Amino acid sequence: MNLALTGLLVGMALGFAGYFGGFAAFLLVGVLGVVGFVVGRLLEGDIELSELGDLLRNRDRRR
Q: Which residues cross the membrane (predicted)?
């Protein structure tokens, strides 16, 4: 599945959630989509937990 089709499906899911469930449902679907994306990338081996830890530590140092 190419990125344009994936983007279309994600946009439609967020649109339905926003229309039928309101703004809170829109945010919930968006957050769960990001969590699912990260878990999928972890399971595929594209990213490692140590990389996520480094990312979070670097973000805290900037403040």
A: 25-43
Domain ranges of the chain: 3-62
Two tokens at 1? 């599945």
pLDDT in tens, 13-35: 999 998 999 999 999 988 888 88
């967020």: which residue's tokens?
Answer: 14
**Does pTM top 0.70 for this prediction?**
no
CB neighbours of residue 17 within 10 Å = 20
Q: Are 33 and 13 in contact (CB under 8 A)?
A: yes
Residue appearing with tokens 């403040």: 63
Q: What gap in Å lies between CA 31 and CA 43, rounded to an integer? A: 18
